[in-house]
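SECTION: protein entry
WANTED: fold as C-alpha cells:
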Amino acid sequence: MLVDEHPRLGVNPCPMITEAQARAFFYANIKLSPEEFSFITPHTRLVVEMAALLAQKEGQDVQQARIAAWLHDIGYRHGFDGHAARGLSMCKEAQLDLNADIEDAIVNHPTHGIPKTALGTLIQRADKLSFVSTEMMELLYPEKKELIKEMLRVAERLL
C-alpha cells in the first residue's frame, strides 16, 4: 500500500506519522549532532510553535505543520551542508510515513529552497522567523547580549 493511501478512504491527505513520533525521532537523532549545532533544539522548538501559529492563522493543518517542523533540521546530525536533503533521507531510511507536503517542507525549507506546497512555504517562513526571537539571538550571539537587549528596547519604543 502507498504511504498516502488508505484501503477504504483512498488517498489520505494526512501523514501516518504522529507528532509524538516526529518529536521522538528528532530527539533521538539531534543528541548525536556535533556540539556546534547545539542551537538546533531550541531553534526547532521555536519553529514548531511558529509553524503551528502560522498554520492556524492561514487555515492549514496544524498537526502537519508541527510534524514537519520537528523534522525539518534533523539532517544537522551529519553537519550543515545538505542538511535538508540529508534529513529527508534519514526519514526515509527510518521508514517514517510522510506525505508529499511534509517531504517538501523538509527538503525545501532552507533559504535557497523553493517549496512546492503551502506547507513547505509555511515551514520555510517559520524557520526564518525563529531566528529573530530574543532566545535565538542570545543563544547565537552570547557576546552581544547587551547589544541585543538595547536593540529590543529601541524597537519597543518605535512600536
